[in-house]
Structure formats: C-alpha cells, structure tokens
Amino acid sequence: MSDVPDDELVQIATNFLLNSPPGEFMEVVTDVRALIPKESLLNDVAAETFREYNTEQMVQVNSPGNKHQVLISKHGEVSDNEYLDPRGNQIITYDHIKQEVHGARAIGSELESDVEAHRAAFDDEAVKYVAEHYPGGATTVYGKKQGSQYKVIVCISSSRFNPNNFWNGRWRSVWQVTFAANGGGQATIDGKMQVNVHYYEDGNVQLNTNTEKHLQAPAGDPVATASNAMKAIIKAEQSFHSALDTSYSTMGDTTFKALRRALPITREKINWNKIRNYKVGAEMSNK
Fold first, then answer.
1. Any bridge partners for residue 171, and if so which?
2. pLDDT tens-digit profile, the chain (287 residues)
3. What is the distance between the alpha carbons of residues 115 and 124, in angstroms, rounded to a whole number?
4. CB burial class (10 A; 0-12, 13-18, 19+) of residue 145?
5. How far is 141 from 182, CA to CA, in rounded Å?
6. Torsion sign across C-alpha atoms 164, 159, 137, 212
7. What DSSP assignment string belongs to 106-129?
8. Cα–Cα distance measured from residue 160 to residue 168, given in angstroms and rounded to the nearest whole number
C-alpha cells in the first residue's frame, strides 16, 4: 500500500471503521492500524471518526447519578463531546476515543421548556415500550420547537453482543413526530429502522437492512399525542419485525439453498476424504 497516497489511505481506513459491525469497533481499529504504514494517519482522523461512528450507532451509556441509560446521538449533540440527557435533566460529557462518560453538567437553555410537556409524555411511553420489547435497550427522547410546530424525536437503540458464540447485533430506530404547537390536527411521523447483525463463526455473514416509514396519528394534548403516535410507531416496528421473521423462515429454502453445492447425479454426498482413493482405484483397474 506504499504507492497509495496518504489521503486515499485515510479515506479507505475511515470507511472500514465507519462500517464496523456493532460491538467490534475497537477490533477493527486494531486491524486497520496494523494495515496502514503510518499510525499517525489514523490518529489524525481518530477523533472525528470515532465521534461519527458512536453517534451514528447511538451507543448506550449510563446516565451519571441515575439508573437509566442515555443514547449518544446526533439529535442530542450539544458539542463534539457533550450530549443531552433530557430525562436526567443534564448534559453529559462523553470521550469518544475512550468511549466513556467523563461527567455531567446541568441543562440550561438547551432544553426547550415549551416542548417539555410533550417530550416528557413521549418519553414515558417510549420507556415502557422499550422495557417490554427491547431487553437491554435504551431510548432517549428530544423535543424542539420549529416556528408554530413542535418536533419530538424518539431514538431507540438495543444491542446484543455475544462474541463467545461469534455474533453481535444492534437495532436502531429514529422517529420524528411533528405536530402543531396549539394541539389538534394530525401528527406527522417520519421514521427509520435499522438492523445490523454480524455472524462470524467459520465465515463472515452480515445482515444490514433498514426501512423508512411515513405515518400519521391524531394530535391533542401532550398525553394524547404521545399515546397515539407511539401506538403507530409500535405497530410499524412490530410489522418490520414480522417481515424479518418471515424472510428468515423462507430464506433457508430459497437464498441459502441456492448457495449450497448441488449433489451429483447419484444424489449422494461425495466423501472428499476418500476421493483420492477412488482415483487411484480407477487408474489401477485401467492398467
């Protein structure tokens, strides 16, 4: 790789890192570091690359002084290393290189008080949903005011890491709910669901799929709006789960079957350990 320009090497290395399977980011960092000729090339872009990966993956961290977890997401980014924890009423400081929380400070103007009643109502509904359907998952809900409209953003992230059995996976979904600030009418819901699973025992198989949804739900007071919107969100996510289950149940007889080696005309499997003996025996018979 010595003939490849440095800027191209950095681009290739960054692409590898940003596409790391969930739970395996540091392993990929180690491998990429060993491949590039100058370690300084990776060090120069490490801060931005680590930040991009962590926020895109919506990694879960413990909220300082609280029992809940908060997501490190772009929707809650205050600065390069500060992130909203609305439920904990604080802003946490996160070290992207060490991948750990380094403290917290009180929320000031970053939390929009006009939207807080709606945001809190959505948060209550989302917490109940995640606790029931995503063991080990977490949700963080943000609220913003945009002119005469409110926008509530529900982020959900759930990870399962099982390196001893050679698989890791993560579910991510982001739902942006927009509705009139004065209540009433319809709330518009735009969502994206993503699943990434990596299975790597004696091979390398990945599932990386996503889908987008555009929904509507009746709006009203904070509790009614949150309840109606979350019902629509839950229905959409359950439908996506069912579609994945159906795909997997039929994949064994379609996609995976097409990848297998076809049996010979005898419909019997070849014993590859004895194939050499078959050939030697045939040659001796001819002689």
1. 158, 195
2. 557 787 888 888 899 999 999 999 999 999 888 888 887 778 888 999 999 999 999 999 999 999 999 999 999 999 989 999 999 999 999 999 999 999 999 988 788 889 999 999 999 999 999 999 998 899 999 999 998 999 999 999 999 999 999 999 999 999 999 999 987 899 999 999 999 999 988 778 888 999 999 999 999 999 999 999 999 999 999 999 998 888 877 766 676 666 665 666 676 776 767 766 665 555 555 55
3. 14
4. middle
5. 20
6. negative
7. E--TTS-GGGHHHHHHHHHHHHHH
8. 6
CA gyration radius, the chain: 25
Listed in sequence order, the DSSP H helices in the chain are 6-18, 25-35, 39-57, 116-133, 222-251, 255-259, 275-286
Contact 138, 157 (CB under 8 A): yes
CA neighbor of 84 nearest in space, from 119, 53, 114, 117: 119
Query: What backbone torsions phi and psi does residue 68 show, to the nearest 5 degrees?
Result: -95, 170
State the pTM of this model: 0.85
User: Is 153 in contact with 174 (CB distance < 8 Å)?
Assistant: yes
- For the chain, which domains are there? 1-57 (3.30.1140.60), 59-111 (3.30.1140.60), 113-251 (3.90.1150.210)
State how far the Cα of 233 lies from the Cα of 191, in Å rounded to an integer.
8
Q: Contact 126/154 with Cβ under 8 angstroms?
A: yes
Neighbouring CB atoms inside 10 A of 203's CB total 7
Structure-token pair, residue 2: 């010595």
* Nearest of 201, 206, 228 to residue 215 by alpha carbon: 228
Amino acid at 14: T
